[in-house]
Amino acid sequence: MTAPSMLAQALTHLEDAAVHLDIDTDVLEKLKYPRETTQVRLMIRMDDGSRKSFMAWRCRYDDTRGPTKGGIRFHPESNADEVETLAFWMTFKCAVMNLPYGGGKGAVRVDPHVLSKAELERLSRAYIKAFSRIIGPDRDIPAPDVYTNSMIMGWMADEYASIVGEATPAVITGKPIALGGSLGRDDATARGGYYLVRHLAANLGFKPGSRVAVQGFGNAGQHIARLLKADGYRVVAVSDSRGGVYCPDGLDVDRLIAAKQAGSVTSLAGSGGVKAITGEELVSVDCDLLVPAAFEGLIGAGNAADIRAGIVLELANGPITPEADEILAGKGVVVLPDILANAGGVTVSYFEWVQNRQGYYWTAEDVHERLRRSMEAEGAAIWQLASERRISLRRAAYVHALARLASAIEAHGTQQFFIS
What we know:
By secondary structure, this protein is of the alpha/beta class. It has 16 helices and 12 strands. The protein has a 7-stranded mixed sheet. Strands 1-2-4-3-5 form a 5-stranded mixed sheet. Helix 6 (188-199) crosses helix 8 and helix 8 packs antiparallel against helix 9. The mean pLDDT is 94.
């Protein structure tokens, strides 16, 4: 039997949420399918003079509530199903945070680590040339994602400006500060998750001294470790693509970040009571909070039962499969779902877009305070909804988002309106 696609699995959350709402069937029909997915082949000149092509995609899943918004990733295993699923999640994430956006996503199937810096720039500019008629500050607004960064966004914004003949900073977010980026964008994903955990700490039984394990030590993983350590929590384990380290007394986060920047956190193993562990072993570490901050589907039916943490904060998109979700629910694990937990990134991207359009820029303190208020308000609403309906926080988040999406879709008229 053929395994269900990634999007088909994601759509089960839509169906589950719909059970808890009185919505028109038009809503489900509209949200079951992406509005448009464009696939192109990018052709660039390599440094050795040869030409090489790369598959690329951009999906605009739904724009009922506003222009679509979502990152662009450069990854060797990217495909159309992944891009459409990520755009679906982004649609609900923007609705969870009440942002005036729909969901979008983009990708190039490439291993960026094998490209020179000049080749990477040519590929980034080629992406914008190919999709310049799809994106736009009022239509579709890209941002960084896996293996893309602020410099790549700067190249892309510059290429778009060359095509349209004028500077248009609001077309892309996550840009360098000097090119119209927002203060507070660098740690926004982790900071949003941090504000959420801190606000719900009493409900979760999470207090200073509690133990934290971080799966994936990229941008989000490093920042969440730094923020939680500063509040008195113990970071006892982290992992990256090469392996992990564990110390029950707590790890030195500054040393971990320095080691990661030099190559891998695994270089700290063997000193100061730090033990080497595999990335797979990190999931089963004895801790209070597990933070998946890497890729989709890393916690599945095969390892969910091994989780010993009582709380999971999903900083990655879709790190827990539906089968694993059921296992964790049976164990009483509280999962703070991705469409809420990692929504700090898109929220501060929205702030950047607003600042670009105003031509007036906020302080980092302003950005942090606005993000804190947003995360606390939506987190509290979803916690209350979950408690009242006696449903999981993930299902409550989808119900919360679907109610907003349904209101917007139904405002255009439903079947009942047209036949009455």
